[in-house]
Amino acid sequence: MAVKGLARLGPVMQLAWLPEDFDAALDHWTKTMGVGPFFIMENIALADMRYMGEPTNAVFTLALSYWGDVQIELIRPENDAPSIYNGPYAVRDRMHHVCLLVDDIADGYAACAEHGAKILVEGKVGDSGGVIYADPGNGPGSVVEILQPQPGTADLFNMMKQAAAAWDGSDPIRKLG
């Protein structure tokens, strides 16, 4: 049986949360859930970022780790610019979105158009990657991120996954350049 809908783009590789208290969420995930280490990427601003079709200068910080093969992402908005991290799509302390990886972001746009998914955010990732955050119809809390990674992302994610597999509980929060 052929896979249909947005799932045809690929499996969910990430579960993401927008916690009210970022530091408390990191503490919960590392100590209670036993997931870590988390790698922090601070003050990210996507090139050509648009929210609901309008340019925005949203800035955010990410914490990434792996729980087996699934990437866990925690997000902290760094400003009040329009985005899915502020306003009606900023659901807190529950799952915010899932992420799918694609080889070509055009496939993501085509799938969204075919299935009536509303494009919330779009932007460039590095020189050759792209990202879409779309609402497939269930509103806040059901957002799907479709990511065409830039070169080198697979190596970075693999490093994080290997660190998680070997993690002994020490050095739970690690900053990336």
Automatic annotation (TrEMBL):
Pfam families, alphabetically? Answer: Glyoxalase_4
UniProt superkingdom = Bacteria
Q: Which InterPro entries match?
A: Glyas_Bleomycin-R_OHBP_Dase (IPR029068), VOC_core (IPR037523)
Residue ranges annotated for the VOC domain, each copy included: 8-149
Q: Which Gene3D superfamilies match?
A: 2,3-Dihydroxybiphenyl 1,2-Dioxygenase, domain 1
Q: What is this protein called?
A: VOC family protein
